[in-house]
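Journal club prep, shared notes

We agreed each person brings one worked example of a sequence with its structure written out as tokens. Mine is Phosphohydrolase. I'm keeping it raw so we can talk through how to read the token line rather than staring at a rendered picture. Sequence first:
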Amino acid sequence: MKEDQKQQWVEQTAAYVREKFLGEGTGHDWWHIYRVWKNTKLILQGVPKANMFISEMGALLHDIADFKFHDGDETVGPRVAREYMEGLGVAEQDIAAVVHIIEHISYKGAGVENKMESIEGLVVQDADRLDAIGAIGVARTFAYGGSVGNPMHDPEQEPVLHKDFESYKNSRGSTINHFYEKLLLLKERMNTDAAKVIAEDRHAFMEDFLMRFYAEWDGKK
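Then the structure, token by token:
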């Protein structure tokens, strides 16, 4: 398969996803996907063994049908992505590699093992997780929490370090608790050197934000 054909598919997919998700309001919109795509390309500069086409397609399609918006059904995203790529004429081995990324990219609870196996998947997973932390991560988690009706903060509700995916995806805790249940854990779960460096600064920003949040909540600032 000629590389110019693959690049054409990447550009076609970017246009398709942009049209589908532009204006979405939960923090899983086109611009989230765009940032994951760009972060993927940045991380790839330090991972020369990774396949760029598979990585880019994985980044662009990783949220094509997120389980959070399909009653917790993890099979929808991989199925929709497969059907889309088959329609383009992508080779089966490349489709399978992209589907693997989509199947395993999501964080599924503090006690759940990461089952991502491919180097391309580890890159895209880092790119996605970087967009869940830092200033963008703060904004996105409040956007999502509000969209599903979760309280912003409940001082009487303790965070839960979920030991399995079922309890994690059924959680209806506060947005502030989500920092402790996921966001603050991601720094130590980055796979690539480039992502680890970026995550350090973004993690520190979230810690500063939480200190300020509690100070304002308690009327100290």
